[in-house]
Amino acid sequence: xxxxxxxxxxxxxxVGSEEQISYCQETIxxxxxxxKVASVxxxxxxxxxxxxxxxxxxxxxxxxxxxxxxxFIHDGARPFVTEELIQRGLDCAKEYQACAAGxxxxxxxxxxxxxxxxxxxxxxxxxxxxxxxxxxxxHLIKEAYEKALMHDxxxxxxxxxxxxxxxxTPVKLYxxxxxxxKITTPEDMVVAEAFLNAEYPLL
Length: 203
What we know:
By secondary structure, this protein is of the alpha/beta class. It contains six helices and eight strands. A hairpin with a 5-residue loop joins strand 5 and strand 6. Helix 2 crosses helix 4 and helix 4 packs across helix 5. The radius of gyration is 18 Å and the shape is globular.
């Protein structure tokens, strides 16, 4: 989707190890003719480490005179991102500088305390499940990560949280998609296969 999108200029991929760089290039990029991938780099132990490595690679790839730009941060485990999501996110980022895809929670959420006892139940109308892409003005997300990495970053779970906590900058949620699932467990693969079979019934 990012390769096809006219809104995307360049792509930087972060992978888990040096060995995966050559695997990615030889098994995915060259056979399928990806043209926008500027570089494939190794990430880090945690997600935020990998994002930071990607942000530094963006800086290295930018002209020295570049002072602005918009960066999309997306989880490779969400393969069903679409051009519509990319466009909505870009429109949002141009207006609000910091945005993340999300959908209203279908489930009631409980806050628990000691002994897994329920402490409170948030109003479901105020609870959203956050997805990617998460989209930011480059200088904003880079500054937020620079500050975050000077502190304990172990509780960071997404990029919006970095901006919220380090810069006290509000993050606008834009409409994501319930199809934009994150493949984490074997059960998620069953759902993903169902989506693919619905879209490509001859496969």
